[in-house]
Amino acid sequence: MKQKASRKQILKEPDEFLTLSTRMIAWGVDHKITIIYVCCAVLAVGLIGSGIGYYFQSSEKRAAARLYQSMAKYEKLEQGSDPKSAFQQVKNDIHDVVDMYSGRAAGKHAMVILGNMSYDAMDYENAITLYMKAISNFEDQPFYKSIIASVLGHAWLSRNDPDKAVPFFEMILATPDMPETDDALFQLALIHQKKGNTEKSQELFKRLSTEFKDSPFFEIALQRVTG
Length: 227
Hints:
mainly alpha, 12 helices, about 80% helix, about 0% strand, elongated
């Protein structure tokens, strides 16, 4: 069986496409996961804080509490071991939240959390499967959908399959004013550059350098446009 490449191994690849983008991929994915953890924690704390009496009466609040407890347990275990070992010890608890509360907010967020933990455990295939299931739960929440689409795109890039990453980055561009737009433009520009689609790549770099002057990708995009 072919061994999955770790993030550190991916970062050692000499190819220009990879060396230019994978450092941003590794950084970006880690921070997107943090954002989702924070959002889920806020959800859980908000529900629990609304009153102990209602807590026992509401399945939503019970689900949020279980999710929050599992996340706290994972964070504590991860500090003393590694993501893979920590994930093995909490995944059944989070799966229970997904199975028991699939139609509720906490259950939907739990699916994303499972994807995050799978990714950190370097089980990229399972992470992609979970994210694919999760993204359909956030059709009416563009912010969450944008983050999940971005992580999916980066996950496919980590698997060296840019063609499968493209639809997810394009999904972000299809929704105005998403926080991941500059990253999506950058990744798509690199993908098209790698394929030899110079005109499309330049178009994307130009848009990035024109519309996102505060982006960390601005200087690279400007250099690509101006030569």
